[in-house]
Fold this protein.
Amino acid sequence: MVKMSLDPVQVMSGQVKELKVSPSSNGDSRGSWEEKEEFDQDRLGLTTKPKTPKPENAVTIAVSSRVLFRTEKEQKVFEQKGVEEYLRYQIEHETEPFEPGPAFAFVKALEAVNTRLRDLYPQSEELFDIVLVTYNHAHVGIRLINTINHHNLFIERFCMTGGSSPIGYLKAWQTNLYLSADAEKVREALAEGIAAATMFMPEKKTEVSESQLRVAFDGDAVLFSDESERIFKAHGLDKFFEHEKENEDTLLDHGPLKGFLEALGKLQKKFYAKGQRLECPIRTYLVTARSAASSGIRALKTLRAWGLEIDEALFLAGAPKGPMLEKIRPHIYFDDQMFHVEGAAEMGTIAAHVPYGIAQKYNTKQKTSVGK
């Protein structure tokens, strides 16, 4: 099994200091949420960095610094020498950029989609907006900004909590998805109705598309509720199939990431409206261990009733998901069972665990999961 970083994020203690971040990393302080969002132009009329959209119009993705960048060395300093030495180390190395972490390619793909959207809809604010969320003290902000500029990322919003929980801030940002290395904070976010997942970095690196965002979802307890999985856990496979057949015209309840799929679909339709369905830079996948003939109809009818489209649906009937994901090469794959997350990571897929539903009460290495 591939080795993954499973340790929760270590929060830092100490007084929280106010950090005022200008709307642009180049020092321009004119922009605000209340202003009309237009492209900044220099005196020659040349387009420079676009301004960030108002949160209520954007698809907001909150990403922790530990999944966007690799910070294992700094984490060891904190764990072994304490917060003061950690802060001193970060200040001494603030001109050294962090290496990309598991969420890096995903964020770059979001930016590629934004570029295409701005080409088609220059004045639209319906874009991905990325917020960097970190437990770090504000002193670390300079190194993070230097790293973002080094990697040519467009991240203007920071939330540096100095060790405090970020959950309240996530709601204020109107977050559509929160990605973190801290499983406890992910659970807190899910409890507050915020789509969230814990990300892991596999040691095997797989190249992913730089022009098309690919997002893969498990079904039950991710897009859908865990209702069917509960039937399987309590009564076995035959009862599960019987239940799904009897209820194939009854919609499944929504799961924690339904809203994020809706947000992706809304942006996809903007491309479809311009005749670019086949060239759409967003592609979604359902990768489920459900059997197509025995239990697939209910899942597909539910998606149709919700008005949601999935570009590709793979019903694996219990077969391993890793090989299929290796072919898809998604920027991120969401599953509620660690067994599947580990299997995906073993094949080089960037996987994220959604700690939701009945499966959390069972052994994470349990291999039998049918209602997935």
